[in-house]
Amino acid sequence: MPPRRRARYDEDAAAYGRRASSGVPAEEDGPYDEGERGAEPRRRRAALNAASVGRLGLRYIADLTSKDTEGVTLVEPVENGWLVNVEVVEDRRVPSTGDMLSLYECQVDDEGNLMSYRRTRTYRRGTGAYGGGT
After folding, report:
1. Residue 64: which residues within 8 A CB-CB, separation 6 or more?
2. Stretch (H or E) spanning 109
3. CA-to-CA distance for 85 and 119, rounded, in angstroms?
4. In this structure, are 38 and 54 located in the same domain?
5. ∠ at Cα 50 (23, 121), nearest 5°?
6. Same domain, 123 and 60
């Protein structure tokens, strides 16, 4: 990964209370877990919520596709993580009602790491994700 993109992931991870490279929470966030007697206490992982996972999914898709994102259309908890759908502008046209959009699905684990992503649908703006006019 280029250094510029790695820095963005590190900044995002810090904003959500953990270190991107290790998955360990940042020093200033969250209460301590009680460790073994005489050992350094361990930090509890900050729990992710739907809003923070949505922002992470949006950032992952924007970085991976290098395309403009419209927004998050779904954030859903699933086994061992989260499912996030992001709407992306695939091709800009004039007028903008001719833009081609896609829906990308990404799976994020409980620690905020991207596990997988895929494009699930492509459609023209104004027709909606599943056809038909608005």
Report:
1. 117
2. strand 100-109
3. 9
4. no
5. 100
6. yes
- Indicate whether 54 and 112 sit together in one domain: yes
Q: Tell me how crowded residue 134 is: count the other CB atoms within 10 A of its CB.
A: 6
How many structural domains comprise the chain? 2
Q: Are residues 40 and 53 in the same domain?
A: no
pLDDT in tens, 32-72: 344 555 555 554 456 789 999 999 999 999 999 999 999 99
Q: What is the pLDDT of residues 93-122, one digit of tens each?
A: 988 888 999 999 999 999 999 999 999 999
User: What CATH number is attached to the domain comprising 59?
Assistant: 3.10.450
Q: Determine the residue type at 66.
A: S
* pTM recorded for the entire structure: 0.62
